[in-house]
Amino acid sequence: MTSFQDLDLFNPTPEHQMLRKTVRDFVDKEVEPQALEHDRAERFNLPLFRKLGPLGLLGITVAEEHGGSGMDAVAACIVHEELSASDPAFCLSYLAHSMLFVNNFYVNANEEQRKRHLHKVCSGESIAGMCMSEPGYGTDVLGMQTKAVKKGDHYLITGRKMWITNGCTDDKSLGDLFLVYAKTQTGGGEKVSSFLVEKGFEGFKLGQKIRDKAGMRASSTAELVFDECVVPEKNRLGQEGESMIHMMRNLEIERVTLAAMSVGIARRCLEVMTRYALERKSFGKPIAEYGQIQRYIADSYAQYMAAKSYVYDVARKMRLDRHGNRMDSDGVKLVATTMAKQVADNAIQVLGGYGYVGEYVVERLWRDAKLLEIGGGTLEAHQKNITRDLAKNLDLLRR
């Protein structure tokens, strides 16, 4: 039985503590044994991914009546931390499905759309993703060129989306369902609208699978092509032109969970480097007794705990149904992602030559960590957003 004293910022309720144990057990048994193999093969483990459905993880923030687990942002962070401590690439595919699509869709869809799709994505029957970035437009979201033109009871979507996680499940097969942002002519000007695009829709095809990535190699990334793709009007989310708020609201939970992934990477690196430093001897004593090694371990621990505390504090205050705290969702990602890459680098340095090869894990985690400084908003975008928000309200520093 869990006592009150056992609960803390990172496990604020018995339900959160049980969730962490469930995911950690799953990771030890199912995720860890396959991580290196799938990284080397650049292959998404679809059968393993589908096992997340029966555990209730694919719809972690969806209400129980719609097939989800009805949990909060803290729960989402717990899952992302635990998965990333073993296989960040597998976790990235999970994030694209559960946060970028499922959470986004659940918050913004109407009841008919929810009934049509939620049970499939929560169970793992359908693999989903979100399409925002384009070949020439990443951080500059408003510059997107993909257009949706209304024709009777349907839309014709034309454009290309790039860097789409879960865009394909293998070399030739598309993912099943995507939330696609496109510009529509609304109120005399162009505004962003969002649409559900399903595999099999006329004019929707796989452009190319992105290969030879530095990291996150076991997560599938693809270019998706929309060539006058026919999308029924019933597949539009909300009203025309109102999807910028959908996008901004969901970016907050995306950035917090990406930060939680960073926490998982750093934790694993700390475990590996500390264990190695205690076992490896040089000049007759464990290298953990040398000040140079102690600095790497101690600094890494302090940076890890500072970032972890920030992540879970922001998650604890987060409301998933509203746009609320952009500054700190940017802040946690800015701090945690750079921390994870540095801690992974420290771990490689402590392990020396062993740290530079795949067998000891930290080399893979180091490569995976870099993507987190780019995806979901670059470091530069976070710096810009935080500076602008502070300029508008310096009293935010006195909370």
Task: Explain what the structure shows.
With 399 residues, the protein is α+β, with helices and mostly antiparallel strands. Helices cover 48% and strands 16% of the residues. The protein has a 4-stranded mixed beta sheet, with helices on one face. A 4-stranded antiparallel beta sheet has the order 2-3-7-6, covered by helices on one side. β2 and β3 form a beta hairpin. α5 runs antiparallel to α7 and α9 packs antiparallel against α10. The chain is globular and about 80 Å long. The model has no long low-confidence stretch (mean pLDDT 94).
Question: What's the tally of helices?
Answer: 11
The 3D shape can be described as globular
Beta fraction of the residues?
15-25%
The profile of the biggest β sheet is: 4 strands, mixed
Quaternary arrangement of the chains shown?
Answer: single chain
Helical residue percent band: 40-55%
Order of helices and strands: HHHHHHEEEEEEEEHEEHHHH
Spatial arrangement of strands, main beta sheet: 1-4-5-8
- The unreliable regions are none
Mean pLDDT: 94
The secondary structure category is alpha+beta
Distance between the termini: 36 Å
Find the count of extended strands (DSSP E, 2+ residues): 10
Computed over alpha carbons, the radius of gyration is: 21 Å
